[in-house]
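Q: Can I see a sequence and its folded structure?
A: Here is a first one.
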Amino acid sequence: MTTTAFKKHQYEFTAHIRDPENNARPDGIEDRRMGIYRELFYNNVEGFISGGFPVLRKIYNDENWHAMVRDFFANHQSKTPYFLEISQEFLDYLQNERTAHKEDPAGLVELAHYEWVELALHVSDESISMDNIDANGDLLTSHPVFSPLAWPLVYEFPVHLMGPDNLPAQAPAQATYLVVYRNRKDQVNFLEINPVTARLIGLLQENEDYNGLDAIEDIAADMKHLDPEVIKQGGLAALRELQQYGIILGTRNSE
């Protein structure tokens, strides 16, 4: 067999495995043998996806779930060869390639993203270092330092509450603000926060020269609150709560 013919045979082989409904089995290979490859490859990919998106899997019945995964398997061109990144490829498929189906829940992409974040944090090789961080520093007069394993997120849907028995038909008026984080025991958890705390986190992450009080005063000015002291105390309480969960590691060491 020439190199060109061999490559053609390989393409036919893989095309059939990916989409046997639309690509004929290559000549010279019995269906029993091809069936082993078809089942092995699909089951591996489906297993990683169902494991990475357990809530989505529960929402779909078997027929609709496998139809969606087979469409991904047949048509999505993955950019990574790593099994651990299949979930990221599936998210990309949902965000950019899948057309809406009647069985899709409202908020499908957001829910998938939330589940992907949990997995991404769980397998992240990012580590927490306390170098140049004062764990007991003053959160108001110094710059609070956030864990690299804490991701502030905002969703239109309450993704952390969604499941087979809780599928909102439309997004509620109030967005959902979360911080998904991995603690020192390598457990991935989430903290639901309010829009003001989300704004506080954003200001501190965007402005390296801000201390905690700078960010709180910005918020108080935006809110035009009659008693800025109330905002100050609320902001300090929010910073302390974030530190309690390990989302804030401490403050930047000025030495």
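Q: Show me another, different protein.
A: A second, unrelated one:
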Amino acid sequence: MVFCGYITAYDDEPHLMICSASEMVDRARERSGLSNFGPTGWEEGLERLVSAVEVDIGENPAAIEVIEAILTGRLINRLRTEKWYEDHAESASQPVDGPVVILGLPRTSTTALQYLLAVDPQFRFQRTWEVMDPVPPPEAATEEKDPRRLSAVARPNVQHISSVDGPIEDVIVLSLHFHNQELGLPVPTFTRWWRSTDLTSTFAYHERVLRMLHAHRPPFLWLLKTPLFMFHLDQLSAHYPNARFLMTHRNPVASFPSACSTVLAAQQGVLPAHQVDPIRLGNDLLEHLVEGARRTIAERLRLGEERFFDIGEGEIESKPIETVERIYSFLGLDLSDATRAAMAQWALDNRRGSRGVHHYAPEDYGCKIEGVSAAFAEYMERFAPFIVTDTSA
């Protein structure tokens, strides 16, 4: 049974080591009754992820059972997506417009900015309930009563903004091609491999899924967001040549330990039976994010700075509507009075501290303030006008 993209495995005996990629492929085919996984390019990612689980998690039956269920669920959603294309390919003829891409280091208000812009009905964005269980794609006329939407539950907390109809990152769609960075799982071996792999086929599949999702539910101007775009801007921009980028900024002294805290909570939430070492996580994440910042700085020079609009976190918090007006001028979009008023209300309802206070410190993850500043020195110098000294959540 498929539920929100995960597969129940009550009939399987838990075992010490994760099963092979080929065994998971066979299991997905058997459970779905389908066989076509669609465009190639995903296979190595699955193999690498299975290998990383063996290295980074090892023998842990409870954790292995969860991970096998997650990966098998992704495979089944691929199979179901391709079955939909076999039956409805003509409905997916409309390409992705834009898109408008939000990126930045984690915990720099990328989510707040996406939620703020998502108030505007001229944007299309992914919702959790539709990407976790994407087939059939939603219908504009009936989505309000869609069983997936009605059963969805928002879980906002001090770390995350969340609502049933609000936007979500692109990571779920990218994970269907097994080329998500996988920070939600404690598999740094995979993440290191992912940084150096080619995501050309991944972005082609990404659009394939978005075309399905908007087939009967326009608009087609997509608002995308995930920090992982920082690592592969060359391949993203090659696939979406009309993409324009909104990049958020915050002092890494604040954003880095906040990211560590958030990633640790995510990993513990997915795999409560696996003990995550916060010191190792901090070291791995520092290496990862510094590399993402370095690549973004270099790639912006190649792509052209005119395609990027920079925003400091403080601007989003202190003057959200003025910031939105400048963004819309950059994008060449109209901002209606009704949308402006709705955005102002959203900003008021979701101002800093409205969900509580997020406590964290770099020392909790084996780092010192001076070390974080030194590691991100190039980033801090390049984007100094958009970085403030505030270190609160």
